[in-house]
Design a protein that fits this description.
- By secondary structure, the protein is of the alpha/beta class.
- Helix content is 38%, strand content 13%.
- The chain has helices spanning 23-33, 45-54, 59-70, 73-82, 88-91, 104-111, 147-155, 211-233, 255-261, 265-277, and strands spanning 9-13, 39-42, 127-133, 138-142, 164-166, 169-172, 191-195, 238-240.
- Strands 1, 2, 3, 4, 5, 6, 7 and 8 form an eight-stranded mixed beta sheet that branches.
- Helix 1 (23-33) links the parallel strand 1 (9-13) and strand 2.
- Helix 1 runs antiparallel to helix 3, helix 1 (23-33) packs across helix 10 and helix 6 (104-111) crosses helix 7.
- The chain is globular.
- 40% of the residues are buried.
Length: 282
C-alpha cells in the first residue's frame, strides 16, 4: 500500500508491560495492509515488540511465538529457570539478596526469538528505543550498538527487574520518561502511528488495593500525564489506545485474554491508516 511514491509510515510502540501484548494486533494489521514502516520507536515492552518487527518478523510469527511460550506455564517456568543466576555471587550482588529483582538481560536472552539480532545495525528497519537514566535524571535514546542490553535498559520495570548498567550509567524502564515515544519519529515519516498501552487504574466492586497495585497505578497516572503534556506540543498522525486497563503490568500469562479483549484494535488500525493513505480527490 505504501509504494515508492506513496506516503511513508513510522510506528511508536508504547510501554505497559503485559498490556503491550496488544501491539501484536497492530503489527498484524500493518502486515495485512502491506505497510512496512520506515522507522520504529519503542519503550519497554514496545521496544521488545518493535525489535521483533524491525528484525523482519511478521505479526503472525510474533503472535505464534508469544502464544507458544506465554500460553504454556511449563515453557515459561523452563525459560525462567534458564534465566536464573549462575553463581551465588550474582544472586547476592549489590549487598543483599535480590529475591524480587530479576536480571532483565538474562530473561530477554531466554525469551527473545532467534530472529532478533545482537546489534541495532543488523535490523531491517531503523529502531530507536528509550531508557531512563536513573542518576542522570533524563531519557536516553538507544539506536546503535548492542541490542539486548538496550532492550533490557528500556524494559527494566522498577522493583521487578534490577536496573541495567550500560556505558557506565544506570537505567530503568524507558516508559517512565517516555511512555509513547512518537516524538522520536518526528521528521522520519509522513505518517506516524502511536500505540498507547499504559492504561489507567480501574475500580472494581469489592476490590482491595495492595501496595503493589497502588505503586503501579500511580505509575500509570504519571505516564499518562507525560503523554498528555507531549500531545499538547505535538501529536502523532494516528493515536490508538487498546482497551487494556483491566490487565496488570505482569499479566503475561493471560496472553490469550489480552489478545482476545484487544482483537478489535486490528480493524481500528486498518481503518485509521486507510483513511490517511487513500489518495485524496483532486
Amino acid at each position: 500500500m505504501t509504494g515508492d511514491t506513496g506516503p511513508t509510515v513510522a510506528v511508536a510502540f508504547g510501554g505497559g508491560g503485559a498490556r503491550g501484548l496488544a501491539h501484536i494486533h497492530v503489527i498484524e494489521a500493518l502486515d495485512e495492509l502491506g505497510v512496512r514502516p520506515v522507522a520504529i520507536a519503542g519503550s519497554s515492552i514496545g521496544a521488545i515488540m518493535g525489535a521483533g518487527m524491525a528484525a523482519g518478523m511478521s505479526g503472525r510469527e510474533i503472535h505464534r511465538y508469544a502464544l507458544g511460550i506465554l500460553g504454556r506455564r511449563a515453557e515459561v517456568a523452563s525459560r525462567m529457570w534458564r534465566a536464573r543466576p549462575e553463581t551465588l555471587a550474582e544472586f547476592v550482588a549489590g549487598g543483599g539478596l535480590r529475591v524480587t529483582q530479576f536480571n532483565i538481560e538474562r530473561i530477554l536472552k531466554a525469551f527473545l526469538p532467534e530472529a532478533v539480532p545482537e546489534r541495532f545495525e543488523d535490523l531491517g528497519i531503523p529502531l530507536r528505543i528509550t531508557g531512563t537514566d536513573y542518576y542522570g535524571h533524563c531519557c536516553r535514546v538507544f539506536d546503535s550498538g548492542e541490542l539486548v542490553p538496550a532492550l533490557g535498559a528500556s524494559a527494566a520495570i522498577p522493583a521487578v527487574f534490577r536496573p541495567v548498567r550500560l556505558d557506565g550509567r544506570l537505567y530503568i524502564d524507558g516508559g517512565i520518561c517516555n511512555p509513547v515515544p512518537f516524538d522520536l519519529l518526528e521528521g522520519r515519516a509522513d505518517i506516524v502511528v502511536a500505540i498507547d498501552v499504559v492504561g489507567a487504574p480501574e475500580a472494581g466492586e469489592g476490590k482491595r488495593l495492595t501496595s503493589i497495585d497502588l505503586m503501579f497505578g500511580a505509575t500509570q497516572l504519571m505516564m499518562q500525564s507525560i503523554t498528555t503534556l507531549k500531545m499538547a506540543a505535538s501529536r502523532p498522525t494516528i493515536l490508538i489506545r487498546p482497551p487494556v486497563s483491566r490487565f496488570r503490568v505482569l499479566d503475561f500469562l493471560k496472553i490469550e485474554n489480552v489478545l482476545g479483549e484487544t482483537a478489535a484494535v486490528k480493524d481500528e488500525v486498518k481503518r485509521a491508516l486507510e483513511a490517511v493513505l487513500e489518495p485524496q480527490p483532486a
